[in-house]
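anyone seen this seq b4? input:
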Amino acid sequence: MRAAFRPLPMRLFRFALSLAALLACAAATASPAAAEAAPPVRLKVIGYVMDGPQLPPISARKLDAINFAFALVDEQGEVYLPGDTAAASLAGLVALRGDNPGLKVLLSIGGWGADHFSEAALTPQARARFADSAVRIAREHDLDGIDIDWEYPTLPGPGISHRPEARGNFVAMLQAVRERLDALGHERGRRYLLTIAAADGEAARGLDLARITPLLDWINLMTYDFHASFAPLTGHHTGLYRSAGAPAGSRSSVQAVDEFLAAGVPAAKINLGVAFYSRAFAGAATAGHGLNQPYRDYAEPQPWRELRELPGRDGWERHWDAQAQAPYLWHAASRTLVSYDDPQSLAAKAAFVRERGLGGMMYWEHRQDAGDELLDTLRTALDAAVTPIPDPDHAR
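predicted toks r here
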């Protein structure tokens, strides 16, 4: 039997009408974006471009940021553009925004062997001079930010000045640059980026990551040069994982990322570095086709545009280390091993970046590619399955 209908009391009826009106209003004013899942953030591809008489061809739409290499620091801590072509090169890079309006162009200061960072970070006056001059260049050339490549705080490097207090001084230097960039951004109504290049292990000892990370938009992790002229054995100079035959403690890209994550750096602020060039070792012992063996001479690096022509020619054999996810070349007659990145290893690294929720990938250096072959691999592999992650541009 159906229950008899009884009308609601008037006060309850009025309450129901008010509630229905509120719900209808909320539904009408809610944005479509709020009702849908946030779109995935495009993982970054960041390329270093060296100065030169002419810029190389650059496919701007495939890149998210370009770091111009390099500005230098003088003995007084002033940042300056060396040579006669830097200004024209910067203008050419900025003009690429015509093809990709979202492209960021940053001034990278330093590089291997660059001196006077220690003095530039030493006192408040020196830090102010460094920050003012760096941001002045960014202003004058309409750049999007500053990338500092100090290799490495507290360490001597190739004859450069160094001091133990550089660890704390670097924090103060970055704070000074951040403040100037924020002031410029307030003036111009835009966000300016501050990034650094960094390496793992001993090279990271001079980084107070807990204090510098909040100041930075991202860190370009130099996960290459693990094996070079300083190494007693051959090995993968940019391997993703440690080779099965490598000595305990050998460096790898995964180990470097784990080190920075353990120090509290958010995954989305880490860009994995890859190499568009080789490291080579001659006169190596023949076991394992020369991998993880003593050698006689360190050989000159080669760019990818030359490396890609070697397998199958003149006695060169390509091998794949499944454990390290890394290729290498072996020349039996000269007993030469060549370590490098190729499309297969870059695809494996891109998958790792997606799985770990990192911010993207960085490479050195653009001129060493061959018709965008490696750049295309990075862009395609990162875009294949983009992970929804916070955008470090707006995470502060």
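Residues 40-275+341-390 form a domain with the TIM Barrel fold (CATH 3.20.20.80). Residues 1-35, 387-396 have pLDDT under 50 and may be disordered. kinda curious what u guys think
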